[in-house]
Specification:
Helix content is about 40%, strand content about 25%. It starts with a strand and ends with a helix. It folds into two domains: about 220 residues, Acetylglutamate kinase-like (Carbamate kinase); about 140 residues, VC0802-like. The radius of gyration is 25 Å and the shape is globular. It is of the alpha/beta class. The longest helix has 25 residues. The strands form three sheets. It has an eight-stranded mixed beta sheet with strand order 3-5-2-1-8-10-11-9, sandwiched between helices. The protein has a six-stranded antiparallel beta sheet with strand order 13-14-12-15-17-16. The protein binds aspartic acid and magnesium ion. Magnesium ion (MG) binds next to loops.
């Protein structure tokens, strides 16, 4: 058995759905389970509709209805699917009406509302696959054992899902059915609809694969895989052949919009490989995500950067060996609700980085009681995702590159994660550093 996940752009129109079916058809012998996102930007449309109902009292599902109905037409599915979807459109309209009257929009209501996107897309896709002679059947994830906590808009799947999902899915597979399952959504123990966070269909797919011990998860996107750098920055960025789960998770946190940050977790537990493929270019090999890399792998897999970072240097004014200094510093940050990204410490000082969007005046006053504080805005974090066991080689080459560019590295962090080496440079230098590092390591 394999799991094939198609994201929003891969099911965005009748044409894309036909294309998806072509891809699925070539792999029917592997007993696929399909996991789908909402069509195109449906999730955004639904959230906008909710906002309009909430703020202006307007109720309209026209845009969502038009997209799905025209897709049914485009796929020449006749009148039955439209009849089947009608109750969902009606329910959606009632829900928006409710929001417009009560003028209340909680996380719980939002999740209920966006769930319609995935529920519509699987129904259309399943009828289309059926029309092509495949024994497909649409399922809402909760029918197949997806149980989550009640942390609406960011729910986590409960342990019991690990047992329940295979109990539901394996018999379907044995019976020769192709389940077409909603990504992104679940229900909590009380029966409320929840979502796993934006982009959460990836997690739905890896969860099915890991709990059912599938051979592989294919994540079909609109890019050729995980790229070695941001293509807007580096012209020669190219898809990476293979990365580890850890590196993929790290990249997701650093904003490479390829996979949901938590999607790797189920795979890490069980070792199911993930293959990221491009549904617009199925011949491209894609990126394989696995437990560990072979000896011959290149030392680094990707380079990312984040601009608009603030560097804070804090030097204790007390004596050496003073205990509790770091605790005091960090409790100040906690007090103002400011989350710290990178940290480097010495005996009497600590440097750390923050997102720029904070007012630091009060905090500075507070910390100044015990330390000298120096705040430097306009910095960037350059992050190298690679094998930290080869850090000497990576650092030597990186610093050499910086030296050639005349760039001073202002802080370094390595070792906290096995795949991430990060350093701070000036904002204005970041693009050149990333380009040169890319040229050195990849070109
Ligand atoms: N449809 C949801 C979103 O747009 C989930 C997903 O695509 O994975 O965030
Ligand atoms: Mg989407």
């Amino acid at each position: 058995m394999i799991v094939m996940k198609f994201g929003g752009s891969s099911v965005a129109s009748a044409e894309r759905i036909r294309y998806m079916a072509d891809i699925v058809k070539t792999q029917l012998d592997k007993s696929p389970v399909l996991v789908l996102s909402a069509m195109g930007d449906t999730t955004d449309y639904l959230l906008e509709a909710a906002d309009r109902a909430f703020k202006k009292g307007e109720v309209s599902v026209d845009r969502v209805e038009a997209l799905h109905l025209s897709t049914i037409k485009g796929l020449k599915l006749g009148a039955a699917p439209e009849r089947a979807l009608r109750p969902l459109f009606d329910e959606l309209t009632s829900l928006l009406t409710g929001i417009s009257l009560i003028r209340e929009l909680t996380g719980r209501t939002k999740d209920y509302l966006v769930s319609f996107g995935e529920r519509l897309s699987v129904r259309i896709a399943a009828s289309y696959l059926e029309s092509r002679g495949i024994k497909a059947r649409a399922f809402d994830a909760w029918e197949l054992g997806f149980v989550s906590d009640s942390n609406f808009t960011q729910a986590e799947l409960l342990k019991t899902s690990w047992e329940k999902i295979p109990q539901h899915i394996l018999p379907l597979i044995r019976a020769g059915t192709l389940p077409v399952v909603t990504g992104f959504i679940a229900k909590d123990a009380k029966g409320n609809i929840t979502t796993l966070g934006r982009g959460g269909s990836d997690l739905s797919a890896t969860m099915i694969a890991a709990s059912c011990k599938a051979e592989e998860v294919q994540v079909w996107k609109d890019v050729d895989g995980i790229l070695s750098a941001d293509p807007r920055l580096v012209k020669n960025a190219r898809p990476v052949d293979v990365v580890t789960y850890e590196a993929a998770a790290e990249l997701a946190y650093f904003g490479a919009q390829v996979l949901h940050p938590r999607a790797m977790q189920p795979c890490m537990k069980t070792g199911v490989p993930v293959l990221v493929k491009n549904s617009y270019n199925p011949e491209a090999p894609g990126t394989r995500i696995v437990q560990s890399l072979g000896k011959k792998a290149s030392p680094i897999q990707a380079i990312t950067s984040r601009k608009n970072v603030t560097l804070v240097d804090i030097a204790s004014t007390r004596m050496l060996g003073q205990y509790g200094f770091l605790a005091e510093v960090f409790s100040c940050f906690a007090k103002y609700g400011i989350s710290v990204d990178m940290v480097a410490t010495s005996e009497v000082s600590v440097s750390l980085t923050l997102d720029a969007a904070h007012d630091l005046r009060e905090l500075k006053k507070d910390i100044s009681r015990i330390a000298r504080v120096d705040i430097k805005a306009g910095k960037a974090i350059v992050t190298i995702i690679g094998d930290v066991r080869r850090s000497s080689e990576i650092l030597a080459r990186s610093f050499n590159t910086c030296e050639i560019l005349g760039v001073q590295v202002q802080m370094v962090s390595q070792g906290a994660s096995k795949v991430n080496i990060s350093f701070i440079v000036n904002d204005a230098e970041a693009a050149d550093v990333v380009k040169s590092l890319h040229a050195d390591f990849f070109e």
